[in-house]
Design goal:
Elements: E1 2-4, E2 7-9, E3 16-20, H1 23-33, E4 37-44, E5 52-60, E6 63-72, E7 75-76, E8 84-85, E9 91-92, H2 95-106, E10 112-115
C-alpha cells in the first residue's frame, strides 16, 4: 500500500499474460527479451496420446510468456522433446532433455532453467 497524506491508496500491479502459439515465436521472444530464467512444468494433457504436456514460462518486465506443448506419440508435438514411458505405464519428460533442448535452441549456456514442480506447482 502507498500512503498519500492521511489516506491509503491500494497499489495494484497486473502482469500481462501472453500465450504463445508456436515454438518459433516463443524462441524469438526469448531471444529478444533474454530472460535469465525459464521455468517449466510437466502437466497432464488428457486429450494427448500419451497424456502429457509441457508448459514453458518466462517473464520480461510486466509480461509473462507461456508456451504449451503436448505429446504426440514418442515426442512432444512442437518441440520434439522425447516422451519417456515408465514401467508403471506412466509417461514423463526427462529434465535433462528439457534443459538441453532449451539451451541448444536458444544458444544460451548460462540460462537458468527451473522446474515449477520444485516450487510446488
Amino acid at each position: 500500500m502507498k500512503e498519500k497524506g492521511n489516506s491509503k491508496e491500494a497499489s495494484t500491479f497486473m502482469a500481462k499474460v501472453v500465450h504463445v502459439k508456436t515454438w518459433d515465436e516463443f524462441k524469438h521472444l526469448a531471444n529478444i527479451h533474454q530472460p535469465n530464467t525459464i521455468a517449466y512444468t510437466m502437466q497432464r494433457a488428457p486429450l494427448s496420446n500419451p497424456p502429457i504436456g509441457l508448459r514453458l514460462v518466462f517473464a520480461s518486465k510486466d509480461v509473462q510468456y507461456i508456451f504449451l506443448d503436448v505429446a504426440e506419440g514418442k515426442s512432444l508435438r512442437r518441440t520434439k522433446i522425447p516422451v519417456t514411458a515408465r514401467l508403471a505405464g506412466e509417461f514423463c519428460l526427462e529434465e535433462e532433455d528439457i534443459k538441453n533442448f532449451l539451451k541448444t535452441e536458444l544458444k544460451r549456456t548460462n540460462l537458468s532453467i527451473i522446474s515449477m514442480e520444485a516450487l510446488g506447482y
